[in-house]
Design goal:
Helices cover about 10% and strands about 40% of the residues. By secondary structure, it is mainly beta. A hairpin with a 2-residue loop joins strand 5 and strand 6.
């Protein structure tokens, strides 16, 4: 799966970039690169939370859902940024990227008042 995504505001640290391509990594279901359309050197690794973190259930505000034109929660794709390292891989659960899977609009949302870590160890994938 490859898809064009448009951030409603630039992701933190990547301004002014808003246009990205989500590219599935072959042989790794639910693992993607998120590559800037105008600068192919700028990319992030992201995971589909439903595949790797089935118990992850962030709550977004009505205003955040409205900014993405999300009227049905099933239209939301939740991605988490991964940070591979020598000691293992961590994921940012405090600021998921929420994608409207119908329109391709998205935002990296800071989850305020929720107890999700910035750097969570990624465990073995659930069967």
């Amino acid at each position: 799966m490859n898809a064009t995504l448009t951030f409603v505001t630039p992701p933190p640290g990547l301004a002014p970039l808003t246009e990205f391509t989500l590219i599935e990594i072959p042989g790794a279901a639910g693992l993607f690169t998120l590559q800037a359309a105008s600068d192919q050197r700028t990319r992030l690794f992201v995971l589909d939370a439903s595949v790797y973190l089935p118990d992850y259930s962030p709550v977004i505000s009505d205003d955040q859902a409205s900014s993405l034109e999300l009227s049905d929660p099933t239209d939301a794709l939740v991605l988490v940024v991964t940070n591979p390292g020598e000691g293992g891989t961590t994921v940012n659960l405090m600021a998921p990227i929420v994608v409207n899977s119908i329109t391709g609009s998205c935002a990296q949302i800071i989850l305020e008042g929720q107890d999700w870590p910035l750097r969570a160890e990624l465990g073995a994938r659930s069967a």
